[in-house]
Prior knowledge:
Blueprint lengths: L1 E10 L6 E2 L5 E3 L21 E2 L2 E2 H8 L5 E4 L23 E3 L5 E3 L5 H11 L2 E6 L6 H12 L5 H8 L10 E4 L12 H14 L9 E4 L7 H10 L6 E8 L13 H28 L6 E9 L18 H16 L4 E7 L9 E4 L2 E4 L1 H9 L5 E4 L1 E4 L2 E2 L6 E2 L1 E7 L5 E7 L5 E9 L6 E7 L18 E2 L4 E3 L2 E6 L3 E7 L2
Parallel strand pairs: 1-23, 3-6, 3-14, 6-9, 9-10, 10-11, 11-12, 12-13, 13-14
Antiparallel strand pairs: 1-18, 2-17, 4-5, 7-8, 15-16, 17-21, 19-20, 21-22, 22-28, 23-27, 24-25, 24-28, 26-27
Amino acid sequence: MATGQTKVTIQADADSFQISKHIYGHFAEHLGRCVYEGLWVGEDSSIPNTRGIRNDVVEALKKLDIPNLRWPGGCYADEYHWRYGIGPRDKRPRTVNSLWGGVVETHEFGTHEFMDLCEMLDCEPYIAGNVGSGTVQEMQEWVQYMTYAGDSDLARERAANGRKEPWKLKFFGVGNENWGCGGAMRPEFYSDQYRQYAEFARNYSGNELYKIACGPNGRDDKWTEVTMERIGHRMHGLSLHYYTTEWNNKGQSFGFDEQAYFKTLALATRMDEIIARHSEVMDQFDPEKRVALVVDEWGTWFDVMPDTNPGFLYQQNTMRDALVAGMTLNIFHKHAERVRIANLAQLVNVLQAPILTDGPKMIVTPTYHVLEMYKVHQDATYLPAEVACPHYSLDKPDLEQLSASASRAQDGNIHISLCNLHHAELLEVTCEVRGASLKQITGRLLEGASIQAMNTFEQPEQVMPVALEGISTSGNTIKLTLPAHSVAVLSIES
């Protein structure tokens, strides 16, 4: 049953801005089984690997065209001392990860291993430096160790550890959540800390760091105002963290009812207003939009799976997560003049992970499929899309039943992403594409048997993209039907 007619009007001939590929970034923290077991198994593992990094995960991630990867945290970044993670692995210190589960951190996966992974994935490394418990000298030396091409002691040490040539390091975060786990700082104090730390994070040997300051938690626009005023031109980006969750009542990642489903989607829509508010504050100090808003932690956050370590943040991933991903990416596209980097939390086995592992087994989640379908928007030109659709309500606020976005790729093809949020009712959609001739049109659809549909290790292909059938065209108009709780991407040769 359809709830009503829906129309999407796309201005294909409009001058617009680019959707940076870097909003499709990812995040790997030393948390739970993300790094260890998820990415790193060690060179002696029976699980097929390349220099200790598991092959199946790398191959799956390559299909997403990952543009950047953030590491080592998260909260862990401001407890991470880089020297622990270099040199012979059997001589690296063993410490306690007191933030996430109280487990022993072996530091087997350190700077060299992370940079090796980034080279395997052909993505830009995004390193978060330690401001909370580190020193200015420690940060300065880490940057030099990674990027200096000359004959310094640090460059020699890097070579002795197996890497003669320096790495290229683009993105560098000066601290993480310094309003909370990164030091419980006030914005005024952090701004002064940033100015000092960033000053000594030098550009060596032609490498130019894109420096990202710690930004606000959710709606805290005072933090944005203070840091923009006091740091200003000294940063290239200001981070923002927002999770789709109700902190005091997260709920289960599966086994939820329709009310919980609706509440989660309503929380996901808040990303739009949060970005708009912080962008408004940033515009007061930076009307040219030189400083990017970097949403380097986003995604769903539910209660951990039963019988798992509560500090490991392991959750299942359903069609609800897929819709949150599609909606959020559509929101990022809309704000891509200001939002130019974003990182889904997290890469493997933690929170809204696109990949889950269990020993030698690996599965991809509904979120993974959305990212793979949406990658056509990377570095494309944003096309304004006006949506007129029914509203969807099980509680307040009402939601627009359709979330949509459109872009023109560098090859001239147009892509339209559509999310039908309703848990039970389909949508009959008309897309009018103004300013373009429509030639061949194809579509891909992601749907599940229910809002709780998911992939498991026993049934790994329950949720998979399929061809979208029943697309019809007339002139510059496209008609299609979207099933309930589904995500679709249209590809238009124009």
